[in-house]
Protein 1
Amino acid sequence: MEYRSIKSNDSNHLGQGLQGKELLNDIYLDLFLNHVHADQYEEYYMQKIDDALDARDEELFMQLTTELNALRASV
């Protein structure tokens, strides 16, 4: 039976660990940017919906509300 040190400093393992951290950072960054982007779209739709209500444009209101609901469902 062969025993190996747990504290092995094998460069291959270190490289894989760094790649894993980079991948995880990329995933978190992507999630954050998607969240910010969705928030900006939601604010845009809310402003356009308010404008449609002020103009009493029911058709535009319904269209924008449907699009906003689809955006919220996709996030």
Note: The two ends are 52 Å apart (CA to CA).
Protein 2
Amino acid sequence: MRRRNIFRTGAVYAASAWVLVQVATQTAPFLHIAEWIVRWLILAAIVGLPVWIVFAWFCELTPQGLKLGSEVDPSESIARRTGQKLDRWIIAILALAVVLLLTNQLVRQKNASLATDSKASAVFIPAQSIAVLPLMNESGDPRDRYFSDGLSEELIAALTQIHDLKVIGRNSSFQFRDSQQTDNAGIGRKLGVATLVEGTARKQGDRVRIVVGLIHAADGTSLWSQTFDRELKDIFAVQSDIASSVAAALKVTFLGRPSQARDNPPGGNVAAYNAYLQGKFQEARVTPEGYGKAIEFYDQAIRLDPQYAVAYARQSLTWTNYAVEMLGGAEAQEAYTKARAAAEQALSLNPELALAHAARGWLLSYTSFDHTISLAEFHRAVELEPNDSEMKNDLATELAVLGQLDEAARLTREALATDPLHGGWYGNLAAYLSALGRLEEAEPAIQKAIALQPGGAFYHRQLAIIQIQRGEKEAALRSANLEPDPTWKINALALAYDANGDRAKSDVQLQILVEQQANEMAVQIAQIYAARKEPEKMFEWLERAWNQHDTGITLLLYDPFMLAYRNDVRFTTLCRNAGLTAAN
């Protein structure tokens, strides 16, 4: 057997077959080779071993080729030389086998590491977490949707009073009202919650019928369900009962009494509450018509219950937003005056109302020259409503105005933890991180905003700014061209063309902005000059912005282009005059 090299040929076959099988099993998934082919290959290798040994027993390799062993004269046999060649083959194949073994081990370790990293990076979903999906309006009249929306919001507000319960905010949970996504597991993953509240609301005459259920998001099983048939006059008791029932089903406890709903009128006037809910519904439309109708409904609620502090607070916010977003000149100043009166009345009626402090904070932020006062109002609002993501975002925004960007970014992330689908807040976060120079974090934040709201104004502009900061000039121009808002697109193109060295095209866009928006976007025009490194022009336009009471002045301390001049005495003087005391 030694003379015929049976052991050597068997070893060569076994090693070669093993290498072939290893290669097949490792490459099959990438080459999309069917598993049955690999199985047949392994079986053929096993069956072939005895055939190979029999073949080696009866045949011998000679200079003239393969011959039967019986035909080879022992004096002419080259079996010794063949054995030496086989030894070299065995060594080479074994070396290849070692390489394959090491490669396989490294791949396994990498896959295991990736699996571990994937698990670690997966969003942790706490057991005590819940989202209230908007209750469906089943009244038969689409105009009654304000009522089902209002009940949903009240339930969200009530559940935030529960100790150690993560409650998703309105903006994120309401995105599933008309969504095509109906699987509870997917909704739970997107919102990062273990439990969902869903149901229906029907308002007919003086009666209401509310069906509420508690769902385990992972598998869609029902944890609790109840129907509430009551008279409309008992709506406040129904709200309390629903919140208490949900808390009992979750086996959690309230920080306070659930009956003390934030938006309920102190006198229990159902008509006032109904008007208030309609006001909130109209305010959420964010249109001139919506703001106008909201103010009228809040007036109606206040007439029905003059002690209705939260109605005054919401009316103040509506007047302020209306002035900032859609009015100018004398009209804006008149709106601010009305906002101030409503905020002061809300605080006089209820000094502990967080929304009233937030309303006063926003008014002061846009009209005062001392932002430390508005900052104090936002701090107080968060103290009163520590679990309210809106209040946290309000405080973060004012901190950014004062240049406290690290804290602003931290608070915005905190707010997003309970309102994870809020595109606007991701946009804010991207702006803060951009000003801090943390571009590796800023770009994913703005990309998230775009993914959540593809048609959102100024998101692509913000992405273009970040790409300019990163030196990605061509990408910045592409992003600028994708900006859906025509005015912000002009601003973005002026910046992007300049970054690409095309001053002529940048000039064209800049001139359009000057001709069309000199009174509304003086700060953004100054920003373009800052990016072009023309400080004299930048300060000329900033002075104009200051003289015409441009609210864009509040962006000074978190615009990456204008911040380059923060040590210029003209910059620090402007910040001091505008109440931006963090300028230094």
Note: The CA atoms of residues 134 and 152 lie 6 Å apart.
